[in-house]
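2024-03-11 09:14:02 INFO worker-7 job=invfold-0412 stage=load source=structure_tokens
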């Protein structure tokens, strides 16, 4: 009867909850170990201007080379990272590797514009972020004009938003570019954008995915492109997967795109091969 069913469901429910918090605790221990033993690496995805095909940026994305589970995506472990005190150590590592990659590309004379690093909200809160950038730039001899930082619009909206905005302003003053990631999925209003220390908007891939089937998405993208142009900020449209999407976007303006159609996120070696193939006329030392 229904009473028994309810009881079963309850048992089952508490069982699952316990299991998931156990799993989370295990994952946290595993992550601590992984940070100590340097199991994280970055993959790189290019952003290109859809008119000129120039590379206008490269986004660094973190991966975990797990000893038994294979390569894990950030979706699996970032939620736990954000809840613990691991965001700053992981973030520091990501910044160091991304800046090092930028330095290597510069040595190869590759014109990649800026290397983009995703900033973790907890790392922002930690107060260590600025120093981590300065340390990495000093260590690898990279100037801020080769770097940009991607932040979620939520960092400007929660209770630490004032602190975050000041910190991002400092990074911006130093010469880094700041871009709003996944734009359109949060609650940042368009008027808000004008007051923030940002150089660019990344239009979330949920808009791109429905560009050809949902006219409202097309209207929003159009609007964002025009807004960005009038505020003199850059646009990157995320998640471009098909020629049809590319062609439609190309009709809408002059901006950058990123997605599987252009290139999937790649290891550093694949990235340099890819860059050599699209920038064949640029001098490559030793590639
Ligand atoms: P994001 O910054 O919005 O990055 C874009 C995500 O979309 C990446 O997933 C990328 O692999 C994926 N993607 C790129 N092109 C396409 C496409 O054409 N179609 C589809 N379906 N997906 C595409 P990934 O690497 O799994 O990263 C997920 C999220 O994790 C990122 O979203 C970012 O918020 C976060 N993240 C990644 N790396 C880092 C990092 O180093 N630090 C921090 N704090 N967060 C990171
Ligand atoms: Mg990003
Ligand atoms: Mg994004
Ligand atoms: Mg995202």
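2024-03-11 09:14:09 INFO worker-7 stage=emit residues=287
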């Amino acid at each position: 009867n229904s009473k028994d069913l309810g009881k079963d469901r309850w048992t089952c429910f508490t069982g699952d909850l316990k299991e998931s918090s156990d799993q989370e605790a295990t994952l946290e221990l595993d992550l601590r170990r992984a940070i100590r033993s340097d199991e994280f690496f970055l993959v790189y995805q290019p952003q290109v201007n859809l008119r000129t095909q120039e590379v206008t940026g490269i986004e660094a994305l973190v991966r975990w080379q797990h000893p038994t589970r294979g390569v894990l995506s950030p979706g699996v472990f970032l939620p736990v990272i954000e809840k613990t005190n691991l965001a700053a150590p992981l973030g520091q590592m990501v910044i160091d590797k991304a800046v090092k990659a930028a330095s290597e590309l510069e040595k190869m004379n590759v014109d990649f514009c800026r290397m983009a690093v995703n900033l973790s909200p907890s790392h922002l809160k930690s107060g260590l972020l600025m120093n981590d950038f300065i340390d990495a730039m000093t260590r690898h001899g990279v100037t801020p004009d080769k770097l940009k930082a991607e932040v979620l619009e939520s960092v400007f909206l929660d209770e630490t938003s004032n602190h975050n905005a000041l910190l991002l302003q400092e990074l911006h003053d130093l010469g880094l570019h700041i871009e709003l990631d996944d734009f359109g999925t949060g609650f940042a209003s368009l008027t808000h954008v004008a007051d923030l220390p940002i150089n660019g908007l990344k239009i979330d891939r949920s808009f791109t995915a429905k560009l050809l089937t949902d006219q409202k998405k097309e209207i929003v993208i159009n609007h964002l492109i025009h807004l960005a142009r009038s505020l003199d900020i850059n646009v990157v449209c995320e998640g471009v997967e098909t020629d049809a999407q590319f062609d439609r976007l190309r009709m809408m303006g002059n901006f950058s795109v990123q997605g599987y159609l252009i290139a999937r996120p790649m290891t550093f070696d694949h990235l340099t091969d890819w860059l050599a193939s699209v920038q064949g006329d640029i001098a490559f030392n030793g590639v």
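2024-03-11 09:14:09 INFO worker-7 stage=report msg="The chain has a mean pLDDT of 89."
2024-03-11 09:14:10 INFO worker-7 job finished
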